[in-house]
């Protein structure tokens, strides 16, 4: 088995052939989401891949995509015009958790943000699991600097 503390060199931008693997991981992240028709998934995925500032990252381990994050780089007019980033949809294959793969993909994701000149990276989680919060703290995130709020459209 590969050493989980290895560098994040196996973190890469998702490519056209990674859609099925990303969707498989997203089913683990949000199992109650409705499945999209293939055409709609492919269209949304192609939009993500071609949109500047949007980076869907994957981690390969043992020849398979086993983790993913979504890094959004946001232009900014404060902080000397340094961009900031938001990370979403962090997921490691359920059968491989606890092996350091999450830390590897997060290290690669953060490095991509720093390489883009970001002055900060934010993420929010809906998880109430203490282990999830401990994981993000181990990755360098602080839960004490900002307060996040979420609003969703009313369903009528």
UniProtKB/TrEMBL annotation:
Gene3D superfamilies: 3.40.630.30. InterPro entries: Acyl_CoA_acyltransferase, Bact_Acetyltransf, GNAT_dom. It comes from the Bacteria. GO terms for molecular function: acyltransferase activity, transferring groups other than amino-acyl groups. Signal peptide: none annotated. Residues 9-156 form the N-acetyltransferase domain. The keyword Acyltransferase applies. It holds the Pfam family Acetyltransf_1. PROSITE patterns: GNAT (PS51186). Keywords: Acyltransferase, Transferase. The keyword Acyltransferase applies. This is GNAT superfamily N-acetyltransferase. It comes from Kribbella solani. The lineage of its organism: Bacteria, Bacillati, Actinomycetota, Actinomycetes, Propionibacteriales.
